[in-house]
Amino acid sequence: MKITCNHCGFSGEINLFDHISFSENAQIETKKCPKCGDMVSISMSEVLEEREKRARELSAEIERKVDEGNTILAKQMIKELAMLNRYLNIEGINYFIKQMKKKMAEHESWGR
Ligand SMILES: [Zn+2]
Questions:
Q1: Distance from the CA of 19 to the center of ligand 1, in angstroms?
Q2: CA 5 – ligand 1 centroid, Å
Q3: In degrees to the nearest 10, what's the CA dihedral of 86, 5, 20, 58?
Q4: What is the tens place of the pLDDT at every residue in 23-55?
């Protein structure tokens, strides 16, 4: 997810911005612009939405790769999805990952 500094216009991936603090209800995160050092606020619901979108995209992509038998790429993407789900905590994603791993193990045993 990319965010933009309102002060200097710097735009970059969210992890380039250092975390400063959360608001009391944890709905707003304040980060620091790596270029000018100004504070940038991000709404957590926006971040969550973005992560959910990415998780959906990844899931579709993983399914495709597993069907194609491209397990190397699928494994990389599963790792990313598992990491995303640490924030999202969606039970269905854990189940999906388990299913995909099972399917890949089947593919690999066919290849032998
Ligand atoms: Zn800036």
A1: 14
A2: 5
A3: 10
A4: 988 889 999 999 999 999 999 888 889 899 999
Distance, CA of 15 to CA of 62 (rounded, Å): 24
Report phi then psi at 30, rounded to 5: -105, 130
Going from the Cα of 104 to the center of ligand 1, the distance in angstroms, rounded, reads: 45
* Token pair for 91: 């039970």
Q: Residue 32 Cα, ligand 1 centroid: separation in angstroms?
A: 8
Whether pTM exceeds 0.85: no
Sorted by where each begins, the domain ranges of the chain are: 2-44, 47-111
How many angstroms does the Cα of residue 20 sit away from the middle of ligand 1? 14
Packing angle, helices 44-68 and 91-111, rounded to 10: 20
Kindly state the percentage of the chain with pLDDT values over 90: 77
Dihedral, CA atoms, 87, 92, 97, 101, nearest 10 degrees? 160
